[in-house]
Amino acid sequence: MTGPSVRVPVRNFQRILIVRLSSLGDVIQTLPIPTVVRETYPDAEIGWAIDRELAPAIVGHPDVDHIHRCDRVQWGRRLKNPSEWRGVAAEARRFIDEVRAVGYDCALDVQGLLKSAVIPFLAGIRPRIGFAHGRELSHFFYTERYLSNVHYFDHNRMHVDHMMALTERIGCRTDNCMVRLPPVAPESRAKIDSLLHFDRQASTIVAIAPATQWKSKLWPLEHWRSLLEMILARTTVNIVLIGAAVDAAVTSSLVEALDDTERARVLDLAGKTSIVDLYALFERIPIIVAADTAPLHIAGAAGCTLIGLFGATPTHRTGPIGNGAITLMTSEPKLACQPCQEHVCRFGTTECMRILRPELVFEVLERALRATEVAAVKHAPSTSC
């Protein structure tokens, strides 16, 4: 994941705060950070400031002692009403007081935006270690700054390496770090067991996450339909469609296009699974096909085989991390505008995603299925007398 560590003396910190508020995919990529810090500072208290709605993603992490839930998103909505200003200010002050009360003697802002940089600043934590790229003037709130604009936005350097570079500045070794999810709750396993029922059973289930928050990352709906048709016609696997509640319109349209026989092998779980439910789901599902979106990153952390479809974002920078096989597909040759890293295609076409053909994705999926079958046979229990 990373190169040789920079050897910086350990500074004997006792309480270390990690700041990563959002988004879910980035939170998953941040999961190795507390583990890396714990290896160097085994007796330290480690905290994490995170948006409240994403806190379940890190609950139970063995290397996180304190979780500070920030109501930033709710505050933003309420601030539209002047009558709420005083209440929001009081709640924000209580949040900062909660962080301050732990007595952190170091903060690592691995998000590097204004919203994250101000938290350790207002809590009076020193040193405050962050990036030198200057996005949203965040660098003004740090006492130590590393990684220039050029280094931070290098398309060939993984974002997790940027975060690791900050831990190296407090003496952490990063050459053998791995991502791991918090333990799966028994109730989430029970819920997934109750949901994973198909009219036609199969030995293998493939997950598909067809929706994304960025319009520029969307693979055309007709391509997803074609891929589903190929899978159902040429393999015996069952399919689970996953996504948030807002993605239900996309997944339901894919199901509606199928005939009754095909629908017996497709389960639409969009909006039916929480973050921790997805942790349990990927214990049961070996392969996922998705664009650059949170379920792809969660599946990677769970050790699944990944087939990622990329266009607007750089595969070598924002791609998922994990222990399983990872194939990240993009248009070949790349368009001159790739990767633009913009939420909406400036040309209104998302051509970089459109020219990634379904048949090419299916070929990769077929190879992944064969590898999964070989692995299953290899690890099957012996039936000899």
In which order are the strands of the major sheet placed?
Answer: 3-2-1-4-5-6
Quick one: biggest sheet? 6 strands, parallel
Structural class: alpha/beta
The CATH first-level class of the largest domain comes to Alpha Beta
Q: Could you explain the architecture of this structure?
A:
With 385 residues, the chain is an alpha/beta fold. It has two domains: 15-168, Glycogen Phosphorylase B (Rossmann fold, 3-Layer(aba) Sandwich), CATH 3.40.50; 186-378, 3-Layer(aba) Sandwich (Rossmann fold), CATH 3.40.50. The chain is built from 16 helices and twelve strands. The protein is globular, with a radius of gyration of 22 Å.
Note the topology:
Layout: E1 15-19, H1 24-30, H2 32-40, E2 45-51, E3 66-70, H3 72-78, H4 85-102, E4 106-109, H5 114-122, E5 128-131, E6 144-146, H6 149-152, H7 159-168, H8 186-195, E7 205-209, H9 221-234, E8 238-241, H10 248-256, H11 260-263, E9 266-268, H12 275-284, E10 287-291, H13 294-301, E11 305-309, H14 315-318, E12 326-329, H15 351-354, H16 358-378
Parallel strand pairs: 1-2, 1-4, 2-3, 4-5, 5-6, 7-8, 7-10, 8-9, 10-11, 11-12
